[in-house]
Amino acid sequence: MGIVFADPVYAGEQPSNTEGANTEQTGGNDRNGIYAAARIQYSGSVADNGSTGNVTFADANWAPPPCWYAPYLGAKDFKKKMSAELEEAANGPGMAGHAGSAIGQTKAHYEDEFSWDDNPGYKDYNVAKDGEGMFWAGVENPNEPDALKRNSCTDLPFWVDNGEPPPPRYEQAITPEILAALAYQHMQLPDTKVTLAPAEGTKVNLPTWAWLDRADFHEVQATAAINVPGFTIQATATAKPVSLKLEPGTPDAETYPTSGECVINADGSIGEPYAKGKADQTPPCGIKYLRSSGDGTFDLQATITWEIAWTGTGGVGGDLPDGTFGNAQAITVQEIQAVNR
């Protein structure tokens, strides 16, 4: 059963939401009279303005949920909005036949307890239970590029009593795990620049040392939460740096170690700082260029891999796919000039 309204019924984070991270919406009035009571609040190391963060998911098949169901409105506010939209839809063009019948059945569903399958009906929009629960509705993930996936939470709004979970058949109802995935999607990893020696440029066949100090290389957290009367959940995604991968920007180079994967040290740093007297040593983390960059530079790509774990309301938690984030650094490589005597 389905129906098309003049304006979609959404809850919480909408594609038009530009209020960004660290915002809270807990019910009230907008120019249409009412708005959704449950907006996801983001905090911690998250991107500005509700946009996606800078993490690349290591698992190409993993993706945050494209949509979900979340608390929307109390009974009185829901009646005001839904009855107005049903009235507008019924008076629109082309509402005869099947479309008109669907509108009539939806109105009977919320007003006169019309039920089907696992969808119990309501008496007068459940107004007698106002304050004892909320209607839940579908939410689009505004950062999901696939419109079909983004619009796949199409069930009509349904009632959930305060303190009770939504019916099991709504597998996409918001949970701490979904919030963890959304926190991960919005996570902003630090823009860490690898320290190099020599710093500005290097010579052909001269090992270049690379390292990250512990102070510049630390774990970060991002939290997503919903807090409305009778329903409060949250989840925190924690990113822990575990390795650094060096890609020289040219095949004419060697990396240390050979894999280019520099692991994290026991003290939380990566690599080893260069010091006087180490010029003839092999760096534990670094690069040796085998040819000059000429009049240009090579783009050294330094990519950090982060392990992602999450915890949420009720003591739940688990792992999310590793994340990566890289920076490109321009490297000038010069020939060693021979001295003729």
Strand content: 25-35%
Q: Oligomeric status of the shown chains?
A: single chain
The total count of helices amounts to: 4
Question: How confident is the prediction overall: mean pLDDT?
Answer: 86
Secondary-structure class: alpha+beta
Number of strands: 16
Q: Tell me about the largest β-sheet.
A: 8 strands, mixed
**Radius of gyration, whole Å:** 28 Å
Could you name the ranges where pLDDT drops below 50 across 5 or more consecutive residues?
Answer: 1-8, 14-36
Q: What is the terminal separation in angstroms?
A: 91 Å
Order of helices and strands: EEEHHEHEHEEEEEEEEEEE
Shape: elongated
The percent range for helix content is 10-25%
Short description:
The chain is α+β, with helices and mostly antiparallel strands and about 350 residues long.
Give a written overview of the molecule.
- By secondary structure, this protein is an alpha+beta fold.
- The protein contains four helices and 16 strands.
- About 15% of the residues lie in helices and about 30% in strands.
- The longest helix is centred in the first third of the chain and has 16 residues, at about 75-90.
- It starts with about 40 loop residues before the first strand and ends in a 7-residue tail after the last strand.
- The model is unreliable at about 1-10 and about 15-35 (pLDDT under 50).
- The chain has helices spanning about 75-90, 95-110, 145-150, 175-185, and strands at about 40-45, 55, 65-75, 135-140, 160, 195, 200-205, 210, 220-230, 230-245, 255, 260-265, 270, 285-290, 300-310, 315-335.
